[in-house]
Design goal:
147 residues; mainly alpha; Four Helix Bundle (Hemerythrin (Met), subunit A); 7 helices; 0% strand; globular
């Protein structure tokens, strides 16, 4: 069964929103806070990480690598990503968020039934609807920039 076309469409909408946002962000915007310890660039690095993780897993399954589920401790991973995000140049983090989203969405749009079966067999370790995660963080970033 292919991925629901509404999921793919939602992913595209939020990916384009992400691209438009990154295109208009100044270097100063990327350094603006979006929370007590996160900046806009940190938030974009966070998005890049989670889309990249999904892309890595799907690529392994697409290449017929056997992989059990991939359990995660979200809070620990987010703390580690935050630490690393602070060491990535802000513009690079922003560009990576767009690149990771585009590559993942391209793979999802071309996903074979076999790849989707491997995804389901692994316990659906992440949502194929990437739009929800992107939307939540883009909303947060846009609210911060509006202040």
């Amino acid at each position: 069964m292919p991925i629901d076309s509404a999921i793919l469409a939602n992913n595209r909408v939020e990916r384009e929103r992400l691209r438009r946002l990154v295109d208009r962000l100044s270097d100063e915007d990327l350094k603006r806070p979006i929370g007590p310890s996160w900046t806009v660039a940190d938030g974009l690095a966070h998005l890049a990480f989670w889309d990249r993780r999904a892309l890595v897993l799907l690529t392994k399954w697409q290449n017929s690598e056997e992989l059990a589920d991939s359990p995660i401790d979200v809070d620990t991973i987010n703390a580690a990503v935050h630490f690393l995000a602070r060491r990535i140049p802000p513009r690079t983090a922003a560009q990576e968020a767009v690149a990771a989203a585009a590559e993942l969405d391209q793979l999802l749009e071309a996903a074979s039934p076999d790849l989707l079966e491997r995804y389901r067999a692994a316990g659906t370790p992440f949502p194929l609807d990437r739009a929800e995660h992107r939307r939540a963080h883009l909303d947060e970033i846009e609210r911060s920039l509006a202040r």
